[in-house]
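Minimal example, chain plus fe (ii) ion.
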Amino acid sequence: MKVIEEIKRIIHLSDLHIGESYKGKEIFRRDIGDQLVEEVNEIKPDIIVISGDITADGYEHEYKMAREFLSRFKVPKMIDTEENNIGLKELDQFDSPIFSVPGNHDTRHGSFDLKLKFLRELVDTYKEYDVKTRELSGKEQNKFFIKRFKPLIIDFFNSCGGLTAFEKYIGKAQKIYNGKGFYLVGVNSSGVGKDMDADGDVDFDDVKMARSLGLVGVKTLPWIEKSVKKADPDDFIIVVMHHHLIGIPDTGNDDNVLMDSGDILRLLLSCGVDLVLNGHKHNPWLWNLNGLPVLDGGSCASSSTPCDNNFNLIEIEEEIVIKRRYLGKHKRWEEVARFKNKKFKRRKRNL
Ligand SMILES: [Fe+2]
Ligand SMILES: [Fe+2]
């Protein structure tokens, strides 16, 4: 623990994809992961923000691996002095100050998917059972039944992925960290569950589409507004969500922005947010939208990346300096942008 006045240095990580990927091939780069841990521990940031896709497929065993990996960050947590004890400090369940939101990959294989998968397999298996056992004796029918249905049922009860696992092994999917002069709002943009559309309809295809494209949803939108409005107007306010608010060049023409990005952008621009952190497309980028920087993190440790793996360091003082650190063989720093911190002087006066 360390006593600190303000949060000044933030590490922004994204899209680690820890675990197995399609056909058992791992896309998480363990060697790059080792570099990442070493570098972040050396930088000793005040907080580590992760904009989603921590796991490859949202399975429970991947979350166990992710928890183990993230526990390797050894950054002291801050404690506020008593007179400076402000509001909520909802960090994740680690000894280091980690604050993460789920990505579309993290919400896969939750109980919702499992129920659906289970029901479909159950129907298919029953059809097969019905056809194949017609000519068999009762004993043989029972044997066939156990052989086909038992693994299905075991699988169903042994699996716990998606958001349930995120909250079990990492932290809350939506949360707020309120420090001195600093306010961070974490949003789950992989809209799964009842937070779907205006009439509250949920259907399986909607859920899949919402997860992939990204959806904040009609119930979460007012929560963001309420949360941001609770911040001191002089706080440096950051909102983090996995999916892109604005399209990223060179990422193709599919699934590029959140389904309700227009609503969110209008909201964020109207309530004094200072910085937005996104992930998802693995292509690092920065948009400046009417003075609101929207920073997209690349993939910091997966093989699915169009460039060397990278992460961001954000320094908040009189200026906001965004630096990108590339990992791998060609380690290097790149200054991405410098902005005037419009709240700096006013906030200094008020502190
Ligand atoms: Fe990703
Ligand atoms: Fe993603």
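The radius of gyration is 22 Å. Residues 233 and 272 are 7 Å apart (CA to CA).
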